[in-house]
Amino acid sequence: MNATRDTEQKTGNVREINGNGPDYAFYGDDFTGATDTLAHLARAGLRTMLFFAPPDAARLATLGKLDAIGVAGAARTMPPAAQRKELEQVGAAFAALGVRVMHYKVCSTFDSAPETGSIGVAIRTLREYCVSELVAVIGGQPNLRRYCVFGELFAAAGAADGAQSIYRIDRHPTMSRHPVTPMNEADLRVHLQRQGVENVQSIDWRCHAAGDAGLEAEVRRRLDAKPDALLFDVLDDSHLQAIGRVIARYAAVSAPLLAVGASSVAQAYALARENPAEPAAAKSPATPPLARARGPVFVLAGSLSPLTEVQIGAAQSYLRVELDPLQMTGDAASDYLAERVAAIAGPLRGGRNVLAFTTRSPSGEGGALPQLAHACASLLQKVLCAVRLRRIGIAGGDTSSFAVRALGAWGLSYLAPLSAGVTVCRLHADRVELDGMEVMLKGGQMGDTDLFEQLLDGNG
Question: Which residues form the Four-carbon acid sugar kinase N-terminal domain (predicted)?
Fold first, then answer.
């Protein structure tokens, strides 16, 4: 059986069967990035829900009509076999809903490797559930100061509210030294080729100067060569809007269409839906600001990025509790966790804000290691069993993914923005003590210097 016929059998004629389903679905390869995508779609006026596993029909029936759905996962930490197994379930679920755009959401720095969180594995797996000939890779997210030029990725370093410098990603002071997936190649075509996506064609930024017709002609010319993916340069929002129109045109003809990239994919999709004649105030409903926290706040920082270290140092309103990575993952981890939980829960019961953070081990290992992320998840679960809280924060992509999944909740909805790339969400759970809790998730590279103080004070 050829690949096209196999894909058609997997997807079926689902759009006719599920015409009322969401048009857009995304899988976030970690939880922090997934909440950023949720925020962009919600702020664009799309009714969106983020789930922790593909939802069944009964769950969807209780929520009514949704414009977009997401699944927050942990694929960026997975080896290829586990990643394929997870994404096969996701791809089948999204195809069964009849979505037009299937978005594999990656970190805006594209950090991944052939054996850990492979974007190549994701493309090959999800491609089996997509009919469109276009596999679009969007290489930048300007609002986070991530840019793609002639196929090469550049990213800012430092707090969003301070002086930032732009680095080619293989010279970035943090991402080039990531403890699990260091970015040592700036050319995203080569980066993806190393992960098994052999033929990646580039649509460079100069194509936008020719307008929609010129861009479409270049896309058509590249697709005639039957590439595995098209990589689009991005320098500003006008580029995203033009790319969004390309995606919309191809998805309207043949769907699902696979798109790969950061939240810029959702931004492109939303921008392409805008009506230029509509008043600006009507295009996206105003988002209520985040109110001041009612009661003590607990923050768990499993990220050891330089920015998170600065944010921890600026968190003057918190009692700080250190977490030793070696003891959290060693032979006596159970006893150590019990002692740390008691040191955290007691002050929280007394009304104090607490920030627990992993320290750098003597070997230099960071908080992104999977075993440490699992230990942090266990600690959060035990803290929340010991004391009931209204608002929490979790720093670190891997830590967030494992920690939120360990709570036993089923989803998140958008509540309010906090900082660029950082969102506060409402937790949805069948357990009454968890349902409605406010949760901030942030990646290591995201947020202002005083982010944890903002989590207390709100931005109203």
Answer: 25-268
